[in-house]
Amino acid sequence: MSGWSPVLRVTQRDLLAQLRSRSFLVQTLLLPMILTFIIGNALGGSQSPAPSPVVMVGTENRVTKALADVLMTRQLASIIYATKAAGQQMLTAGKAIVLIEFPVDPERTLLRGREFPILVMLDSASFFRGTVIQSIVQGFAQQLQTTRATLLGAVRALKPATAQELAALLPTVQQKVQSDFEARAPQITATQITGRQAGFFTYYAIAFGVMFTLLSATHGAGSLVEEFERGTIARLLSAPLTPAGLLIGKFLALWAMATFQLGSFVLLSSLFYGVRWGEPLGVLATVLATAAAAAGFGGIIIGLATSFEQVNVLGLIFVLVMSLLGGSMYPVDALPGIAQQLSRLTYNRWSIEAFQLLSSGVGSLVIALDVAVLMGMAVAGLGIGAWSLSKRLAS
Amino acid sequence: MLVVTELHKKYGSFVAVDSVSFRINDGEVYGLLGPNGAGKSSTIKVLSCLTKPDGGHVQIDGLDIVAQQAQVKTRIGIVPQDIALYDDFSAKENLLFFGRLYGMHGADLRKRADELLEAVGLLERGKDHVGSFSGGMKRRINIAAGLMHRPKMVYLDEPTVGIDPQSRRLILDLVKRLNTEGLTVLFTTHYMEEAEELCHRIGIIDFGKIIAEGTIPELRAVAGEVSPIEIELRDVPTPQQLEALGPIVESLTVDGSRLSLLCRDSKTALPAILQSLAQTGARVHHLEMDEPDLETVFLKLTGRRLRD
User: Fold this and answer.
1) CATH class for domain A52-183?
2) Chain A residues within 8 A of B88 when measuring between CB atoms
3) For chain B, what percentages of helix, strand and coil (3-state, to nearest 5) are there?
4) Annotated domain spans of chain A
5) What are the pLDDT digits (tens) for A4-49?
6) What ipTM is given for this predicted complex?
């Protein structure tokens, strides 16, 4: 390469041409914002979802109230007491997402040591939230079982001779067991959650931001085809610019545009939708690495495609396959095992993982591997592109 | 300025340039003449550093085109046959961009762009997008773009194809003016009259080989005493009937009702030709005799017309 000046001139020209394009703002900023809003709300609601309506069959008693307290304290549910038939109707009408039915007199049933069936019905349209409530009900049932076993064990140990003795014993034992439970309750220390599962809205904001960055980069890769079709390629390469220099110039333009696009999306989604992207330095590193990897895939297309049709087809293949496998359309954790393994080859997987980690509150160092893999993809893409282009120009 | 020695270029098994040698002196306008597919564009591609030669050597201003490519590139300017400009940029933005590619900047860059816009008669339209220009205006900016970095030598590849007479005149005058200012020019064209008007020397290329080279008088001498005769006929004779002309003419090509003949002594041969045609029943509609030109030379050397 004969110096960086002509390389940077190519970058400058491509950037100017992109910024003058009328479709640029629509494709790079508006479309991802709109899609994130639609899909994010459709799948998961906003960042602070309202409590979901849950039907308790029958009337309030000590057992149902205890469960209701748990669900309402966590802001997961608002409780409606109704008959079973009315509850089922509410489920089918979408007015409730879960129905819970305990035995008619749950306290008495417990103390008598009888069967204790609990029925949980879920609205399949709210499967994810319903599953969370179901798991809380299961935990609650286990707690009831432990309390019952302890209480009955204590009563049996005292061996009351008559029903009157039993009736006299029960309140005392119950009170003692309860006070003992409270005195020796397990100590739970709450710490900051560092899990990867951000809310659905945040997840799809990340997933779409990453996918649209790749879409724009692959679309922008058509700029070299334009040089060939216009005939300007001869002018460029007869200037002090090598094919590798030309490719680097175009790669830098794609990188800059992708950084601008993803950076703006991060800013806008955080301002308008309240998406929490996480620690700024880590987000900046991930934005740069994601944009570089997207530009790298653009570089491969630049090197391979000889027509706009090929740019579109290759771009579509890259975007669809990587977005499907890499988590931009469906969370990777929900994919079959082999697909999860293959997802490691996609740019979306590493980028989404890094953004999710940052969004869940971890520090920047944790995403070092993700950023390194993305930068590796960028370098590999640029290398493949340069090799293909040099080969094509030599023939 | 330019020395091409035994240049060889092939694509797969197809030999595009076959041991071509020629030289262009400082301040000279050299014409490379030949039909489509003769090897002109392949030769220019090598000379423009767009592809490496498979054999032979090329030196520009004493620099080897392969080993010292970076220095060579700053000395040459290219004007491709197709318009090679950015439609979404203005005329001036195009010139500034191509100038910057060669490291030009600042006041010098802008001054040079204005100079060239004025030279091609488009200073007033400098801020307009090239996409809104006519074919002739685009051709003029196309030439200006190749001259931005003040090259010592410029390759003009068919620069007047498909444009209006006014733009053609302007381009030919511009080339002449630049040449008088010291610019060396390699000029390829289909138009013989342009070559004859502009070029100090001409190389005729066919099937990848230079088949004749020299000044216009030297090339006319190659044609010898032969003169071209063009005859347009009514009731065109059959090829068998035309065979009767064989002993009288040097060469004969038929294009519909039009006969192109070369004969040694046209004044003596013409009555015999007309008599022979009359015997076939053909009627002469139009007859034209001329001095031998480059077309005649090509016809004499290859038996084909340049535009075939």
Assistant:
1) alpha beta
2) 17, 20
3) 40, 30, 30
4) 5-45+199-394, 52-183
5) 888 999 999 988 888 887 777 777 777 777 777 776 666 555 444 5
6) 0.78
